[in-house]
Design brief:
278 residues, alpha/beta, two-stranded antiparallel ribbon
């Protein structure tokens, strides 16, 4: 059974749309296309807090990324409702942060509220069509390859049902992707060719399997050993499909795992521990 699922969520797309038009972590043709719709001061308000609002895999996670990006994308409310409730929560005195920090968060929330209805009415219908067409292609690729079943068998663990959700957005080319916004959901762009996208999503599916397999290790506790974890995922990906390449930067670690396979087999814990000793 294929455990790699896809979604085209309007609120997730809105949050990353606004980051893109503000050049906050993203600077691409998508942002350029829509940037003229927005007041430059509002975009500057978002851009000025780029350090707090953005992530770079294995390097940096902004302190506002969780409450201002992840939560509005996954809260169960619309993003507009979430930002309105955040302002109300701050104004009720429930957050113990410096006054200037709270004021900055409120300003960003108000910008995010201001353009929500315009996005949903005038931008989302077109972007949704683009994303859903891409999803049709990706779903077929994964169902035909039976990748998730092969990956679970190789790593030796299974994701709980329903599985892993690739939340597709159209605004993140050239910036951070594979961003986990829930325990089962990552954000991906739609600008790669389908085979390259399949390799990228497959790599991240294996990362989620490794969160289970290496739950008693330090692999996900800090950035220090992140490349070893990425390399292990890429090692497994290439065991399933020798032609797959998604993370060129960790091929050195992949080769280490290949060398260790003769003594450790393909057991994730044994491979990871042996690589740490190296």
């Amino acid at each position: 059974m294929n455990k790699i699922l896809f979604s085209a969520d309007p609120d997730i797309n809105y949050v990353f749309h606004m980051l893109s038009v503000a050049k906050c972590g993203y600077d691409n043709a998508y942002g350029e296309k829509y940037r003229g719709r927005y007041d430059s001061a509002d975009l500057k308000c978002i851009k000025d807090h780029e350090f707090h609002l953005t992530v770079r895999g294995g390097e940096h996670c902004g302190d506002w990324y969780g409450p201002m990006v992840c939560e509005p994308a996954r809260s169960g409310l619309t993003a507009k409702q979430y930002y309105m409730e955040t302002i109300a929560w701050i104004e009720s005195g429930n957050l113990d942060l410096p006054d200037d920090t709270l004021a900055s968060i409120v300003r960003v929330c108000r910008v995010m509220i201001r353009y929500y209805d315009d996005f949903m009415g005038n931008i989302w219908p077109e972007e949704k069509r683009r994303i859903t067409g891409y999803i049709d292609t990706m779903r077929k690729l994964f169902e035909e390859s039976d990748f998730s079943t092969k990956a679970e068998a190789l790593v030796g663990v299974s994701l709980p049902e329903p599985g892993f959700i690739a939340a597709l957005v159209s605004s993140v080319e050239g910036g951070a992707e594979a961003i986990d916004i829930t325990d089962t959901q990552d954000v991906f762009g739609i600008d790669r060719n389908p085979e390259a996208e399949k390799a990228f999503i497959s790599h991240e599916f294996i990362i989620y399997l490794l969160r289970i397999a290496l739950k008693n290790e330090d692999a996900f506790l800090s950035f220090e050993n992140w490349m070893l974890t990425e390399g292990l995922a890429e090692y497994y990906l290439q065991k399933i499909d020798s032609n797959s390449r998604s993370f060129q930067s960790c091929q050195e670690q992949v080769e280490v795992y290949r060398q260790l396979e003769s003594t450790c087999g393909t057991d994730a814990v044994m491979l990871y521990r042996a690589a740490l000793k190296r």
